[in-house]
Design goal:
Elements (H helix, E strand, L loop, with lengths): L2 E3 L5 E3 L4 H5 L15 H11 L4 H7 L7 H5 L5 H11 L3 H5 L6 H4 L21 H6 L66 H19 L5 H9 L1 H5 L12 H12 L10 H13 L9 H12 L9 H30 L1
Antiparallel strand pairs: 1-2
The structure holds zinc ion (2 copies).
Amino acid sequence: MTSRILNTGFHIEVTERYHNLIGDRWPVVIKPQPDELVSSWIHRLAIANGIAPLQLAFLLDLGGGMWSARLDLKLPIKLVDRLAMLTGLHSETILSMVVTEAAITSLMFPLRKQAGSNQSVWLQYCSFCLAGDGVPYFRRQWRQASRVSCFTHGHGLRDRCPACRTGIIAFSQTAVIPQHFCVRCDFDLRWAPRAQISRAARHLERAIEETLTVEKTNDRGTIGKLVQRVLQVPLLAGTTGAKTLTNLSTSARIRCFEQLSIQPRHWTQNDIKAAIADWRKMKLAGDGNQNIVPFPVNCLQRLECQKSPRSVLVDSDRVELFRSFWLIMQAGKRAKVRRRNTSNI
Ligand SMILES: [Zn+2]
Ligand SMILES: [Zn+2]
């Protein structure tokens, strides 16, 4: 090892390579935050240990490109073992940050290197959540195309830097800079202004999310059908042709949800019992949507039984939730009729 003394008085030494220096255990261990993506945790781990995320990719033999985004859906077991060894965390803890539910992965954004202004990028964020975090991190729910707002803050999500319109590309960061700074222009995403979204659109989003949550846990095999219907939201809203939900930017999806949620309905009931009674009337009137329409009723009944604070909704919210879900299902029925009519021409 060589050393020399500059005029400034600082001692500059050529040190050993990083992995030789740190050995089998990294000096700083970062605990996962609630609902954190594994890519977000890995970026934080790199920064905390003084390594740029892209350098870490090479250190872990993961190449470049969207290396960490890929890990959110599939984390090779060899890498899990290696990360567990380097951090001392349990393998189960690391795996819990990976999105594994097959039906839900269909709602994840595709990984594309370049996206048009109306196209999706791989990840969204809420600037208010980032601002409130002790150490800002990215949530699993922000990779899901059915999410367009933050349930905590009630604002729309964003998917690009407001200053330069680039998506989040923390995997390409070559400097030791936290992931909530835009890689291209250094804008602090915590300062991104709130994105507008209507109350009705938020109710529709909440209805979909609650229903997905309930359907994930049942064994009726109905979630696949529900996910397919959710992917058709742009078509149902009649706003963007035949594009699926996962291909659209956050602002375009907010427009879809808003469009779908304002379609005129005659809905005057003010409690959940009346809402369910109305559903029964629809069914008796020969609605014919036997497979889909029962979902909200089953969901609402299950939600009433659940004790978690997240599921405690006041009656008016439940009515809105039911109404929103009914809208999307009815819109699907109309779109089907439209398609059938078109094919008959
Ligand atoms: Zn938020
Ligand atoms: Zn930027």
